[in-house]
Design brief:
α1 runs antiparallel to α2. The chain has 86 residues and is an all-alpha fold. The relative contact order is 0.15. Helices cover 64% and strands 0% of the residues.
């Protein structure tokens, strides 16, 4: 896996993606708490956005260098090499 010392740019991008996940989940939590409901369509969009960030974190954890548009799309897809725990 990349690290901050050897891959500062890539590490910063992973950190940014994680910050985005946190921000989106906090916003979603606030929406759910305040509104008391959320349409299925809104929930799908919000969760899809969160998953895209999480997927990019996982799928790019070993990538060094620029991320092309093609790689961006591939990195945004659900991982095939991780098993959920819990």
């Amino acid at each position: 896996m990349i690290n901050a010392e050897d891959n500062p740019v890539e590490w910063a991008l992973l950190a940014y993606e994680l910050e985005e996940v946190i921000e989106h989940l906090q916003d979603l939590s606030t929406q759910l708490s305040q509104a008391g409901s959320l349409s299925e369509e809104e929930f799908v969009v919000e969760m899809g956005h969160v998953y895209s960030h999480l997927n990019r974190i996982w799928n790019s954890r070993n990538h060094i260098g620029d991320i092309s548009d093609e790689k961006w799309k591939a990195f945004s897809q659900f991982p095939k090499d991780i098993d959920p725990v819990g």
